[in-house]
């Protein structure tokens, strides 16, 4: 029996292959613009920053919170 994570990875691999067929990298590679923001410079800054994730549900546990309001959750942080 596959774990939930193994199923997600397998499904995503199929999706990625289909996407490659629909939109090859060469079809948009020349249109990609470099970012004005520098990732490594941001890490060296003096400000503390967080990347947060909030989820209403998870594939393995189902609904975590029925009254899911991301804006309200962010204001509480």
TrEMBL record:
Residues of the Indole-3-glycerol phosphate synthase domain: 5-75
Arranged from A to Z, the UniProt key words for this protein are: Amino-acid biosynthesis, Aromatic amino acid biosynthesis, Decarboxylase, Isomerase, Lyase, Tryptophan biosynthesis
Note the InterPro entries from the entry: Aldolase_TIM, Indole-3-glycerol_P_synth, Indole-3-glycerol_P_synth_dom, Indole-3-GlycerolPSynthase_CS, RibuloseP-bd_barrel
Q: Name one GO biological process term.
A: L-tryptophan biosynthetic process
Pathway the protein takes part in: Amino-acid biosynthesis; L-tryptophan biosynthesis; L-tryptophan from chorismate: step 4/5
UniProt cross-references to PROSITE patterns, sorted A to Z: IGPS (PS00614)
Look up keyword S-adenosyl-L-methionine and say if it applies: no
Superkingdom of this entry's organism? Answer: Bacteria
State one molecular function term (GO).
Answer: phosphoribosylanthranilate isomerase activity
Q: So what EC number does this one have?
A: 4.1.1.48
Its recorded reaction(s) are:
1-(2-carboxyphenylamino)-1-deoxy-D-ribulose 5-phosphate + H(+) = (1S,2R)-1-C-(indol-3-yl)glycerol 3-phosphate + CO2 + H2O
User: What's the source species for this entry?
Assistant: Citrobacter koseri (Citrobacter diversus)
Please tell me whether the keyword rRNA-binding is annotated for this protein.
no
Protein's UniProt name: indole-3-glycerol-phosphate synthase
């Amino acid at each position: 029996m596959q774990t939930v994570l193994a199923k997600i990875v397998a499904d995503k691999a199929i999706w990625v292959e289909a996407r490659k067929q629909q939109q090859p990298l060469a079809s948009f590679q020349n249109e990609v613009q470099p970012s004005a923001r520098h990732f490594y410079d941001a890490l060296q800054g003096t400000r503390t920053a967080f990347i947060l994730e909030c989820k209403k549900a998870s594939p393995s546990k189902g609904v975590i919170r029925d009254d899911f309001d991301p804006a309200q959750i962010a204001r509480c942080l």
